[in-house]
Specification:
- The complex is a heterotrimer of chains A (467), B (307) and C (296).
- Chain A is of the alpha/beta class.
- Chain A has helices spanning 3-19, 25-28, 59-74, 87-99, 114-121, 128-132, 144-149, 172-178, 188-198, 220-229, 246-262, 272-280, 294-297, 339-349, 354-362, 380-385, 390-399, 424-440, 445-462; strands spanning 49-56, 78-85, 107-111, 151-152, 155-156, 159-164, 166-171, 206-209, 284-290, 309-313, 326-332.
- Chain A folds into two domains: 43-164 and 326-384, D-Maltodextrin-Binding Protein, domain 2; 166-324 and 403-462, Periplasmic binding protein-like II (D-Maltodextrin-Binding Protein, domain 2, 3-Layer(aba) Sandwich), CATH 3.40.190.
- In chain A, helix 10 (220-229) crosses helix 11 and helix 18 runs antiparallel to helix 19.
- Chain A is globular and about 60 Å long.
- Chain B folds into two domains: 1-51, no CATH class; 68-304, Orthogonal Bundle (MetI-like fold).
- Chain B has a two-stranded antiparallel ribbon with strand order 1-2.
- Chain B has helices at 12-25, 30-51, 69-76, 78-109, 116-128, 131-142, 149-156, 164-167, 169-194, 198-206, 211-239, 243-246, 260-269, 274-298, 301-304; strands at 53-54, 64-65.
- Chain B contains 15 helices and two strands.
- The radius of gyration of chain B is 23 Å and the shape is globular.
- Chain C has helices at residues 2-8, 13-44, 49-52, 76-81, 88-119, 122-134, 140-153, 160-185, 188-196, 201-212, 214-230, 233-238, 246-251, 261-291, and strands at 60-62, 70-72.
- The radius of gyration of chain C is 24 Å and the shape is globular.
- Chain C folds into two domains: 2-80, no CATH class; 84-291, Orthogonal Bundle (MetI-like fold), CATH 1.10.3720.
- The chains are: A alpha/beta (467), B mainly alpha (307), C mainly alpha (296).
- Chains in contact: A-B, A-C, B-C.
Chain lengths: 467, 307, 296
């Protein structure tokens, strides 16, 4: 995909340098995009052009990158250029790009957090109308929660690639050895008791891995669900910050204390990957994280102890269910000049036949996107592969409700593990940074909570939410 | 990116006229100066302009002119001041320790021993390694309390498990920075040592000077200029240290390792608050300007040249 | 050094050699400790993802990892890193192009400037030198949005020229500072003699001074190349798919979900190899260049 496209600018650069000075750069731009422009495209199978796609480097996207030649073989007039970056870098890049109208990409993987906000700004196109009109694509196949989460004012603004709720994973062998049984639907109290029992520092095994890496999408995600479970929330109906409310404070302290007493070593630098490694290596007995982890840790090819892994629903408290909701989806930049070709790629990558193609070409279900299409769970091959975890995943995705995530009916925001306002990226990151400080002992939990409360108040005022 | 001539209030007029005289009279200096002005000062002027705006990329509807409001906000938050303090501590510690370690490296390989070339190669390598890779390596393989070599070594010898980034966050980051910059200092200092006339060292030894005396009274004074250059360049680069923090602690725990570049990064790429980020950038430039002026006065001889 | 001693005072030889041996052992230990993280990254590239972060750490490649500190050797990571869909070559070529062209541009701008600063108009040198230094005061992240917006308006986002402009500006100050200090070392009388013979400034510079500081020039070019090759932040923000460089290729193997460390170690090894190898080959002349031994 890239070689032909790379040569052109290189050559051009050399000419530019050779002929005169750097000042000719203005002439160097443009025209790199394909001639097939046009607005709101209707896919007709004959589209042509170059589609530039920005993707988060998660295993499912890496598998997709591997299959791009398959797409290009069946769509000979379309070239696909892919950029793969880690989540933080990609989010930063795509957000800057789209919000300044630089328009470097046609498609980008964006999360459930961004979609409604970007739809509101008009940065991404409404894709539901076109996708719904294509019977072969079968957009009714998506989980309703996923589709709702990616919609703005009832319309779909990004095509779901894979989706996830959250669940508790555990090592059956370690639990059995310690005489702990894990109920199918545990409460946080039960999980904490089990974690403390399983915690065995002399054997270098921690009770539970909970993300302690600062970041709204890192520690912020599991912590957010614990806050909901305890009956807490970020804001009340009048946008008064609720971090210091009894429930929210109790939840945050519970999280911090659990990590301190029975959590993984190196908590403040541990995110998904670190916890996954720890579980796979037998350094932790339990791990609470995204259901999509199932595809990795239940895969014997990626985890030698796959047979020992168990799964339970997201632990609950006064509120139930508490699992989070997230999806990575392809958004179509509204400034894209290659919309017909972009639609072709999007319909292929998020299409019904795609997961089977992943298995056929890579020999593994590990890279197949799950949690977006219900039909995947009827696929005989995937059914067998996911027999240990599919029931929990599907049920969690069916029950999850981002509109009523808290224990209150008057909560002014939507989102489960996040508050769906642009400022939350900063707020969630700052607060989790403070909480990480409490975990490592540089400050007390109360001090961290007080600071978070202040940040949250500032956001409500400065953002114009609080009247 | 830097200071244009106009910001330098105290010597304003001579410098401006100096610049113009220079550009008129000298085709040798002008291209570089013009290039640097165009490429670095245009964005900097934009930064100043943005610093006066209330502008969040994600809330374009709220944009407006904000005067010096952004600057006032900065000094009302502990965060900015804390990051400033961390930046000074990290930079000062990392530069000075890098210099000492670099001196130690240089003195080690300045003498002949079997395999000297190889050891010098080994010592230089950390400076060549891509900072992102180096930082991730330290985080995942050396300082990680679960999988790290260091903790494995310590616990094997009966010591306690240490969670380096949680217990000694700033020191851990500093170690990574020093690991990378000590070789740079070594290169400079080794160059200085090799330009030192061996006869002088030898003479002192014949006169009965101990190795330490020789080092203190012959080598160190000769190295002064090289050390000054090392301090100046090291300071400029380590002041904007970013990779080793982004790849490990992300400024935490709490704000223990939050330095100004990372704070600006978070302001740009988590809150997309261009206005405040620009204001921070301008303040950083002003502070660095003051600091560098001071440093250069301190290291006065460096500027004199060609004696 | 030993040679000198032997020539001068044979009775000291034994003592000096004993000191050298002690220094040699210490130097080797220090060298290996400093190098260990790099070695470990290199070795990790040949482990499976699960073994990459296993405890106890392993360092000796073997067929099946049967003995202590050994791990089963695999080339899977390199296969993944170099697999066709990852397109390593375009990234690599972009990086090479940027390093070479920006290096030449920097030299083109810096050599005359540094020479003049070293030999002429001393009254202004201070402010000009300080000006170049001041262009490095603001961390890249502080100006990234303005730079991005300018690049957008020039329509050079994701064109190599955007990075070329930035890398040249980024390395210009250090090149001028280093080159000036080298020109300072050129003996005054050599230039004066040429001037008496009626040489123009151009002839002084290119005919006399430049050849004398050639080792320093190489050292400067090399330092600039390291910074350009390893630069990540501008590349991340100003390039996407067409102008992307090796650090972006490498970081693409990092993920927030799934194990990645062995593959990243392999990619990181590939990414740092060119600079490390050139650095190893050039280190002697690097040190000589920095010390300007050729002049003295």
């Amino acid at each position: 995909m890239m070689p032909t496209n790379v040569k052109r600018p290189l050559w051009r650069t050399l000419i530019a340098l050779g002929t005169a000075t750097v000042l000719v750069v203005g002439a160097c731009g443009s025209s790199a995009t394909s001639p097939s422009g046009g607005s709101a495209g209707t896919p007709n199978g004959n589209a042509s052009g170059t589609v530039t796609v920005a993707m988060v480097g998660n295993p499912q996207m890496v598998a997709l990158q591997k299959l791009v030649p398959e797409f290009e073989a069946t769509h000979p007039n379309i070239k696909v250029n892919v950029l793969v970056l880690p989540e933080n870098d990609l989010r930063a890049k795509v957000t800057t790009d789209i919000s300044t109208g630089a328009s470097s990409f046609d498609l980008a993987t964006i999360g459930m957090f961004e979609v409604p906000q970007w739809a509101k700004q008009g940065w991404i196109d409404e894709v539901g109308t076109t996708l719904d009109a294509n019977p072969a694509y079968d957009s009714s196949d998506f989980f309703k929660s996923i589709r709702d989460g990616l919609s703005y004012k009832g319309k779909l603004y990004a095509a779901p690639f894979y989706g996830e709720s959250s669940s508790l994973f555990y090592r059956k062998d370690l639990l059995a050895a310690a005489g702990v049984t894990m109920p199918d639907k545990p409460t946080w109290t039960e999980v904490a008791a089990a974690a403390n029992k399983l915690n065995n520092p002399s054997a270098n095994v921690a009770g539970i891995c909970l993300r302690g890496l600062p970041g709204w999408g890192e520690m912020g995600a599991p912590l957010g669900t614990v806050i909901n479970a305890f009956g807490g929330r970020w804001y009340d109906a009048k946008w008064n910050a609720q971090i210091t409310s009894a429930e929210t404070t109790a939840a945050i302290k519970f999280y911090i204390d659990l990590v301190k007493s029975a959590g993984e070593k190196g908590a403040i630098t541990s995110g998904f990957t670190e916890c996954e490694t720890a579980l796979v290596q037998g350094k932790v007995a339990m791990w609470y994280d995204a259901t999509s982890a199932s595809d990795l840790i239940f895969d014997p090819k990626q985890d030698a102890n796959a047979a020992n892994i168990g799964i339970a629903y997201a632990p609950t408290g006064v509120k139930s269910p508490t699992g989070w909701l997230w999806a990575w989806a392809f958004g179509l930049e509204s400034t894209s000049k290659n919309k017909p070709a972009a639609y072709e790629f999007l319909e292929w990558a998020t299409g019904k036949a795609y997961p089977q193609l992943v298995f056929d070409k890579t020999g593994s279900w590990g890279g197949a996107p799950s949690g977006a299409r219900k039909s995947l769970y009827d696929n005989a091959g995937y059914k067998t592969y996911g027999q240990a975890f599919n029931a929990v995943v599907v049920d969690s995705l069916n029950k999850v409700d981002p509109i009523h995530a808290t224990n209150f009916s008057d909560t002014p925001y939507t989102g489960i593990q996040f508050v769906q306002i642009p400022e939350f990226q900063d707020l969630g990151t700052k607060c989790t940074q403070e909480f990480a400080g409490a975990i490592s002992g540089t400050q007390t939990a109360d001090a961290a909570i007080a600071k978070c409360q202040k940040y949250a108040e500032d956001v409500a005022t400065a953002g114009g939410y609080k009247k | 990116m830097a200071l244009s001539a106009r910001e330098r209030a105290p010597t304003r007029v001579p410098i401006i006229s100096g610049f113009f005289n220079l550009l008129r009279g000298n085709e040798f200096v002008a291209p570089a100066v013009i290039y640097a002005i165009v490429v670095t000062q245009a964005p900097f002027l934009l930064t100043i302009w943005f610093s006066l705006q209330k502008w969040n990329l994600l809330r374009p509807e709220n944009s407006r002119f904000n005067g010096i409001g952004n600057y006032i906000d900065l000094f009302e938050t502990d965060e900015f001041v804390g990051a400033l303090v961390n930046t000074v501590i990290l930079t000062a510690a990392a530069v000075l320790i890098s210099l000492v370690v670099g001196l130690f490296y240089a003195e080690l390989v300045n003498h002949r021993f079997p395999g000297r070339g190889i050891v010098r190669t080994l010592l230089i390598t950390p400076f060549l390694v891509m900072p992102v890779v180096g930082a991730l390596g330290w985080k995942n393989m050396i300082l990680n309390p679960l999988f790290g070599v260091l903790d494995w070594l310590i616990t094997s010898l009966g010591g306690p498990r240490v969670d380096w980034f949680a217990q000694f966050p700033l020191a851990s980051v500093a170690v990574i920075v020093i690991w990378r910059w000590a070789p740079f200092m070594m290169l400079l200092l080794l160059a200085g040592m090799q330009s030192l006339n061996e006869e002088v060292r030898e003479a002192s030894r014949v006169d009965g000077a101990t190795a330490i005396q020789e080092f203190r009274f012959i080598v160190l004074p000769h190295l002064r200029r090289y050390m000054q250059l090392g301090i100046l360049l090291g300071t400029i680069y380590i002041l904007s240290e970013f990779d080793s923090i982004a790849m490990t602690t992300q400024g935490g725990p709490g704000n223990a390792t939050m330095n100004l570049p990372y704070l600006i990064y978070r302001t740009v790429f988590y809150s997309y608050d261009v206005g405040h980020a620009a204001a921070m950038g301008v303040v950083v430039v002003v502070l660095t300007f003051v600091f560098a002026t001071f440093l250069i006065r301190l290291l006065g001889r460096l500027m004199e040249g060609n004696q | 050094m030993i040679g000198i001693h032997r020539r001068r005072a044979s009775h000291r030889t034994v003592l000096v050699e004993r000191v050298s041996l002690w220094r040699g052992v210490l130097a080797w230990i220090v060298g290996l400790v400093a190098f260990f993280p790099v070695l470990y990254i290199f070795v990790t590239g040949f482990k499976s993802e699960q073994n990459a972060l296993a405890e106890p750490p392993t360092i000796i490649p073997s067929v099946n990892g049967g003995f202590p500190l050994s791990f089963p050797f695999t080339t899977d990571n390199y296969a993944a890193v170099l697999s066709p869909e990852r397109h390593f070559l375009p990234f690599f070529m972009n990086s090479i192009l940027l390093v070479v062209v920006s290096g030449l541009l920097v030299m083109l701008l810096a050599i005359p400037c540094a020479y003049t600063l070293s030999w002429k108009r001393r009254g202004q040198n201070r402010s000009i030198l300080f000006f170049f230094l001041s262009t490095k005061f603001l961390p890249a992240v502080g100006v990234i949005i303005p730079i991005f917006i300018i690049a957008r308006d020039l329509k050079i986002i994701d064109q190599p020229i955007a990075l070329l402009i930035m890398y040249t500006a980024m390395n210009l100050p250090i090149a001028i500072w280093m080159l000036r200090s080298f020109f300072d070392e050129v003996p005054r009388d050599v230039i004066d003699a040429a001037r008496v013979d009626g040489a123009s400034t151009r002839q002084e510079l290119f005919g006399i001074a430049l050849p004398m500081i050639a080792p320093g020039l190489v050292a400067t070019l090399f330092i600039c190349s390291i910074f350009a090759w390893n630069e990540f932040f501008f590349a991340l923000n100003l390039a996407a798919t067409r102008a992307a460089t090796v650090p972006m290729f490498m970081i693409g193997f990092e993920t927030s979900e799934g194990l990645f460390w062995a593959k990243l170690a392999a990619a990181g090894t590939m990414a740092m190899m060119p600079v490390v190898i050139v650095g190893w080959a050039a280190q002697r002349s690097l040190v000589r260049g920095l010390s300007m031994g050729a002049v003295k």
